[in-house]
Amino acid sequence: MNRPLVGTLATAVLGAAALAGTVGTAHAAPQHGAQHLTQHGAQHLTQHKTKAVDFAGTVALSNCSGSVVRMPASQPNDPALVMSNGHCLESGMPGAGEVIVDQPSSRSFTLLDKSAGRAGTIRATKIAYATMTDTDVSLYQTSSTYAQIEQKYGIKPLELATEHPAKGAAISVVSGYWKKIYSCNIDGFVPTLKEGDWTWKDSVRYTPQCKTIGGTSGSPVIDTATGKVAAINNTGNEDGEKCTVNNPCEVDENGNVTVHQGINYAEETYGIPKCFGAGNKLDLSAAGCALPKPAAVRR
Fold first, then answer.
1. For the chain, which end, N or C, has fewer CB atoms within 10 Å of the first or last residue's CB respectively?
2. By residue range, what is the domain housing residue 194?
3. pLDDT, tens digit, for every residue of 282-297?
4. How far apart are CA 201 and CA 204, in angstroms?
């Protein structure tokens, strides 16, 4: 996983041992010497004939990256949502099979403007949804509406795409934590991605150019043709090990296991809008919603 950064931030809540095993933590703030992360300046990699990608709407967490997101049907006066990884939760990583809904939270997020400057701070009221099962995502409901954020800071949310991403699509992984943009393409899709105790389905594999690191966990993966969020950055194979923490392995439809050292991954987000109704309210029973449900409501 792209480990959440705890070595550099006293406010990070995940311990080193947990982080080393955090799914997607390879993209969370690094522990080992910040993994040579000296690039604190905003860096835009050139995109040809695509929509310009910047930092507006992204956020920095204490240990990870994230973004203010909206569903296609979200309204200006709906409470704004912040999306990051499940393994970036302030309470620690959810266990395999664990699903968290409607848990109170007062977590704060540093909101960035288009040039990666600090626009302001927004605060959560609850964790609307979080899991590391099938996917690796957390969605926080905040005390601000989209309209209030735009009026106060001039920042609009990023919109979640509703269609499956395409192989070969040009993408940008925008890290609010490191104020860095990684650009590459979607190399393909992984039926099953396994890391430690966790398993994810239909994951995105990047081409080698996206060398994401600790602290980039939770970064929105933006399709540069549409400007919409296609996935959420979460992990990579660091050491060439098989299916261990920070060393995810790929499992194909026939059960064959392969390892790609140095390759990084993301989890698709196109299905999330089907699970949120009017007022940005979570509805796991809505038609088409495939997000895992808490054990108490499973049938």
1. C
2. 1-299
3. 999 999 999 999 986 5
4. 9
